[in-house]
Design goal:
single chain, 322 residues, alpha/beta, ten-stranded mixed β-sheet, three-stranded mixed β-sheet, 13 strands, globular
Length: 322
C-alpha cells in the first residue's frame, strides 16, 4: 500500500495539467499513486492525460460535476495512508512528498498544511538547498488552535485517508470556501502540522484563478454560510469549544471583510461584520493573547541518515524565538 495517494481534479487545463502530473512523477519520494479526475473537459485535457498510460489512474467524468466532486471521487479510490490534494494548475515541488513523509514518520498527524511558493504563471527553477537541510514546522494538538495565519488552499492539504473518510470529505455547496469548511470539520482531529519551510506547493497566480478581486462575492457568501453552520452547531467540538472555533472563523472573517472593502462590495462586507462580530472579537482577543504569552515555537526536522533508504527521521530541536 502506498504512503501517499495524490488526487488531481482538473477541468479545461490542457496547458497546465501536464506540469502538475510531471511534478508528481519527479518527486524524490516515490511511495505514491496518482489519481487524476478529468471533469468532462472541453479542450484536450483528457487526451493529454491519457498519454501518461498506466503511470496514472485516469477517471473521466461524463458531465462536469465540479472540483469538490472530483476530489472526493479520487479520494474514495485512494489506497494510500495519506491523501495529497493538488489542483490541475498547481505543482508539487520535487521534495514535497519527502518532506511530508519526514513529518509523518515522526508525528503521524491527521493533517499537514504544506508551505506555498507563489508563482506568476511559470514555476521558477529552485533548489532544495536554498531552504537549508531542516524542515521547520509549527505543531498543534488541534488545527483550530493554530495561532499563526497561513494560506489555505486545496493544493496544500495532506489528510490521513481514514480521517478524511470518517468526516465525509469535501462538503457540497461550500465552494469556493471548501478548504476552510474542511479545516473546521477536521479541526479536532488528532494533530496538525503547518510547514513553514521549505515550500512544498507551487501555487500559480494567473488570469483563471478562482480568487481575485472580481470574484469576492461568492467567497463572501460562502463565508456567511460557514458562520451559519457554526451557529447551527454543525462543526465538531460541541458548545465548550465554541469560543475556540469562533476565533478561528473570526480571523477568516477579518480577511474577507478587507477583501470586500477593497473590491467595493460594501454590503457584503457589512453583512460579514454584522453576522460575525462576536467571532471577530474572539479572534482579535486570541491573537493579542497569543502575542503576549508567546506563540507556538517552531520545530525542526531533519533526516537522521541523509540518503538512507530506511526513511528514519528525527526532530532536532524547538526554537522558541521563531
Amino acid at each position: 500500500m502506498p504512503l501517499f495517494s495524490i488526487v488531481i481534479a482538473t477541468y479545461n487545463q490542457e496547458n497546465l495539467v501536464r506540469e502538475a502530473v510531471d511534478s508528481v512523477l519527479a518527486q524524490t519520494c516515490q511511495d505514491w499513486e496518482l489519481i487524476v479526475v478529468d471533469d468532462a473537459s472541453k479542450d484536450r485535457t483528457y487526451e493529454t492525460l491519457k498519454s501518461y498510460g498506466n503511470r496514472i489512474q485516469l477517471i473521466e467524468n461524463s458531465t462536469n460535476c465540479g472540483a469538490i466532486y472530483g476530489r472526493n471521487m479520487g479520494a474514495w479510490m485512494a489506497k494510500g495512508d495519506y491523501v495529497v490534494f493538488l489542483d490541475g494548475d498547481d505543482v508539487l515541488l520535487p521534495w514535497a512528498l519527502t518532506s511530508y513523509a519526514t513529518i509523518i514518520r515522526c508525528k503521524r498527524p491527521a493533517l499537514i498544511m504544506g508551505g506555498v511558493l507563489w508563482c506568476s504563471n511559470t514555476v521558477p527553477v529552485i533548489s532544495r538547498d536554498q531552504y537549508g537541510k531542516a524542515i521547520s514546522v509549527y505543531e498543534y494538538d488541534y488545527l483550530v488552535r493554530r495561532d499563526r495565519p497561513q494560506f489555505s488552499g486545496a493544493s496544500t492539504m495532506v489528510v490521513e485517508r481514514e480521517t478524511f473518510a470518517r468526516w465525509g470529505g469535501w462538503k457540497d455547496g461550500m465552494w469556493p470556501m471548501e478548504v476552510d469548511d474542511l479545516c473546521l470539520h477536521l479541526g479536532y482531529c488528532r494533530g496538525a502540522v503547518q510547514i513553514i519551510s521549505p515550500p512544498t506547493t507551487g501555487y500559480r497566480q494567473h488570469g483563471h484563478n478562482t480568487f481575485g478581486i472580481g470574484n469576492v462575492p461568492p467567497f463572501a457568501d460562502r463565508m456567511l454560510a460557514i458562520v451559519e453552520k457554526e451557529r447551527a452547531g454543525l462543526y465538531p467540538g460541541g458548545e465548550k469549544r465554541r469560543l475556540e472555533r469562533g476565533s478561528f472563523i473570526g480571523g477568516k472573517l477579518l480577511f474577507w471583510i478587507k477583501c470586500s472593502v477593497k473590491a467595493k462590495c460594501y454590503a457584503r462586507g457589512a453583512r460579514l461584520l454584522w453576522k460575525g462580530w462576536p467571532m471577530i472579537l474572539a479572534a482579535v482577543l486570541r491573537r493579542s493573547w497569543s502575542i503576549l504569552k508567546g506563540r507556538q515555537p517552531a520545530t525542526f526536522y531533519t533526516s537522521s541518515s541523509p540518503g538512507s533508504p530506511s526513511g528514519l527521521f528525527a526532530c532536532i530541536h524547538r526554537c522558541g524565538r521563531c
